[in-house]
Every structure is written in structure tokens, then in C-alpha cells.
Amino acid sequence: MVANTSCILTPRNVSRRVSAHTARKVSPLGQKQFQSRNVRRQRRTARTTRALPTYAASAPAEDIRAPAAIPADYLCDELASAFGPALLFSQASTRITRTNDTILPSSLPATTFTTVPASHIIAVGAPSSSNVSLHAAHHDVILGHCNRVPALSAPVDVPAGHLPVQTLVLPHPSSFSALNEYFCVHRQDLLLRRIQPRLNIFGSQTHTATCAKNVLDDAAIAQHAESLRSVPVAQLQATLQWTKGLAANMIALGVSQTGAWEVLDAAARIHDAAINASL
Asked: Do 159 and 166 contact (CB within 8 A), yes or no?
């Protein structure tokens, strides 16, 4: 009887089968397929768990255009129209305490009761004098009207209750206060009243760059000059010199507002005509 040897597992046959089974499990092709499936599975997981950005993407800085420069006349007109009376009251109500120092300090005590307090104290003096007059002022108002005035500095250690002091040397210090008032309200009638209270030419509205020009003709100049006939010539001459000093200050400061120049032009021509008529 012949034995069936097909199912007899000899050690050699077992070794061959195990080796073949192991070879199938770790064959290079099988490894690549297994790794490929793992990579695809990891990619799908990464796509489903990707975090959303916290902030939306913004345009680069170079793509954002800078705003156009705003004309100084427009800013000054808006300040005068919206805050003129408050600015003027702030200047008038500010109380400055002078010290006994021989050298002007960088700041001085000042008290004010207003919603728009002054930012600086302007110490105005003549080129050949050490005496100065002190005026409360607002930084934006001064810089908006005076093209030749540098930025008003302020020390970092200004004590509480003090305002920084800025010195201005002008050809005619006594007329600076009239300009400082006009810068706040743009009232031509108030500026003319500071020059000659007898004259009543301009209205009480706020003058802006859009207002029509108000230049007096020769007949109007002669009529207003006649109203000053009773004023002594010496007083007329002093007022004319004061007006010229005010004009010199405006040139030194770089003031270009047409409203102020219209007032000075009318006042100078009227007083000159009144003086000539009295001689």
C-alpha cells in the first residue's frame, strides 16, 4: 500500500510554506501599496482637520493709498465755524501765573474753565527787547494759520496745572492779541474794532474761504474817511502805524487768510485818506 504523502508536512515543507507566506506579507510591492494607502488616509485626515485662519487676509500696505492732504484754509474755517466762540472764551478765561524767574521757564502755571483748554502759552517779544507778553493759544489754531511758525514744542515733563511756553519774536508784539483772537473766530468786524472802533464795515458772520471778496472802492473809502474827521491827526497816524505793525506780524507769521487781509487793507486806506483830508 502506497502512503499518501501530499499532506505529510516534513520540516522542510513547513519551512518552505512559512517562508513563502512571510515573503508575500513583506514583499516590496505589498509594502508600497500599504504605505500608499496610509499616505492617502493621512491626507484625507489632514484635509478634514485643517484649522481655519483666525483673521481674514488683508491687502498689502503698499496697495492702500494715502489720504490726500487737507488744505489748511479748510481746517481753519471748520475750527472757526464749529468751535470759534469756545476757542475765544478759552483764551480769554485762561489765567497765567507769571514767575519771578529771570529766564523764561519752559512751562508756567495756568488755570482755565472750558471744554477746549489752551495747549500752549505764547510768549511774544520784539527782536531788541527782553520783555514778553503772554497769550494762551491752541496748537492747531496757530499752526493752521501761520505758515512760517514751526511746530509748537512741548516738554515731556510738564507739571500738572502748567502749560508749555513757546517764544515768538515779532516786529509788532502789541498787535499779536488781535490776530490771536481773529484766528479763533474769523470775525472781520471784531478785528476792525481792535483797529478802529468808529468804523462799521464788516458783518458779524464767520469769514471762510468761500466768502465773496469785500474790497471797498474809492467812494466807500472816502465816505468812511469822512466819518473820522473829528479824530485828531496824531491819533489817526498812530492807528495807521498800528495797522502796519499788524500787517508786518502777518507777513512774519505767514498768514494768508484773505479775511484778515481785507480788514487791514480797508483800515489802512481809510486812515490814510482821513489823514490826507485833515492836512
From this structure: no
E-assigned strand segments in the chain: 95-96, 107-111, 120-125, 132-137, 162-169
Could you give the CA distance from residue 204 to residue 275 in angstroms, rounded to a whole number?
28
Residue 48 resides in a domain: no
Domain count, the chain: 1
CB-based contacts of 228: which residues, under 8 Å, 6+ apart?
196, 198, 199, 236, 270, 271, 274
Query: Which grid cell is 256?
Result: 494768508
Residue that the C-alpha cell 474794532 belongs to: 193
Q: Which residues pair with 166 in a beta bridge?
A: 122
Q: Higher pLDDT residue, 215 or 136?
A: 136
**13 falls within a domain:** no
- Confirm whether 182 is domain-assigned: yes
Q: From start to end of 48-139, where are the E strands?
A: 95-96, 107-111, 120-125, 132-137
Please report, as a single letter, which amino acid is at residue 89: F
Q: Rounded to an integer, what distance in angstroms lies between the CA atom of residue 141 and that of residue 208? A: 14
Q: Tell me the CA distances in angstroms from 17 to 10, 21, 181, one per residue in order.
A: 11, 6, 111
**Which stretch, 23-37, 137-151, 180-194, has highest mean pLDDT?**
180-194
Question: Which residues does residue 95 pair with via DSSP β-bridges, in sequence order?
Answer: 111
Domain that holds residue 103: 70-279
Instruction: For 153-170, write each residue's pLDDT tens digit.
Output: 777 789 999 999 999 999
